[in-house]
Design a protein that fits this description.
Layout lengths: L2 H10 L11 E7 L4 E5 L12 H11 L5 E8 L9 H8 L6 E6 L4 E5 H4 L6 H4 L7
Parallel strand pairs: 3-4
Antiparallel strand pairs: 1-2, 1-3, 4-5
This protein binds tetrahydrodeoxyuridine.
Amino acid sequence: MDELIAKACEARARAYAPYSGFAVGAAIEASDGRTAVGCNVENASFGLTVCAERAAVTAAVSAGLVEWRRLVVVVDAAKPVAPCGACRQVLGEFCEDLEIVLATTDGGLSKTSLEQLLPRRFGPADLGTVQDAQ
Ligand code: THU
């Protein structure tokens, strides 16, 4: 199995999803090969739930990884699932495009990209005035 998929599976095993029972794992591979992972973290106040993808974004940025080449999302479902709209927008803050691998725990695979999932999105450059945060 692809190492990044294995890392997303490990993260998925740590998901906190007592309300939906739908555990998700995500792993981001930075341009330098380093990785960061995330799992979904639900809350009794349901709207405060954090998706696995956004948890992985937070972990990556916190580790200093802001240039990425690949994202893997793993679920235990009949078919792979794609990131929700909110996560697509958050992912787009850090990259023009991103290779995205959607996987299931039993080996299902589907490949896509951020550009395919959220074309012509609003981004940092649209503000015109934003300085580089680095
Ligand atoms: N979820 C994710 O973590 N990522 C997705 O791409 C879709 C949905 C989570 C949120 C919630 O904890 C559960 O899956 C059901 O929506």
